[in-house]
Amino acid sequence: MLEDVTRLDHPIDVMVLIHKAFHALSLHVEELAAESQEGGDLKEFESAFGFWVKQLLFHAETEDKYMTGPLEDSQPARDNESEHDELREKGTELVEFIGKGDTAGLEEHVRAAMLALEDQEHQQLLENANDVEEILKKEMGEQRVVARTRRHLYRRVMGMRILEFDHFENEEAFVCSIVRDRMSEKQQLDIARRLLIDETAADPRWIIDWVAEELEPRERKLLAELEARFARLAPAVD
Ligand SMILES: [Fe+2]
Ligand SMILES: [Fe+2]
Q: Is the separation of the CB atoms in 149 and 105 below 8 Å?
């Protein structure tokens, strides 16, 4: 469990609150992936996973542009950007995996096993995903195919969640400290606003409202106090 945040000494400290919301959301997605191993459809998982990826993409892009982008000559800033790339890559792989449906995990596994056999006929058959699905269902039964794919799905979601948690720790330890040292309160407030409010969206509050929901009442109050300070900033131009 993460500790409760009791004060925000600098505007950038709101990062810990935002990361806290991500903790809760990604653990929820992971739980749904774990439960999916028992069967049932993936609707609830897919919608929670989609929301997680949407939040994460916006968060990482905004940080690259407005937080680490201006930190020239900073290795921790560059490392942070590389970690974002890694997260995006993992997310894309997962989206592709989910898109393949319930035979995805198996297809990968069987393809490797079949290739090892070097059996020309099998290899040709495996070139078509539908064939693979048919072969597998016939050989193993549909339920086992689904069960195996769900295990792989769970493992991949957990992998992404672990990568994300490591990233948050690194960012809080190595990047936020530089931001505190090198950027003015006003600059930090501007970054915080861009991370929490999306002026380009039909509902600009889709981030801050979600973060608030995931927090303890006292932390929610800190977030609201910070938001009140945004009013004094000039409007975000781009
Ligand atoms: Fe962050
Ligand atoms: Fe980040």
A: yes
Please work out, in degrees rounded to the nearest 5, the angle formed at the alpha carbon of residue 221 by the alpha carbons of 169 and 199: 75
Q: CA-to-CA distance for 156 and 138, rounded, in angstroms?
A: 26
Q: Tell me how far the alpha carbon of residue 63 lies from the centroid of ligand 2, in angstroms.
A: 6
Report the C-alpha gap between 238 and 236 in whole angstroms: 6
Structural tokens at position 35? 């439960």
Confidence at residue 59, expressed as pLDDT on a 0 to 100 scale:
97
User: What tokens does 190 get?
Assistant: 């501007």
**Cα(142) to centroid(ligand 2), Å:** 40
* Closest to 180 (Cα-Cα) out of 56, 71, 45, 37: 71
Provide the CB-side half-sphere exposure for 135 (13 A, CA).
17
Nearest alpha carbon to residue 36 among 25, 22, 48: 48
Q: Are 5 and 17 in contact (CB under 8 A)?
A: yes
pLDDT for residue 140: 67
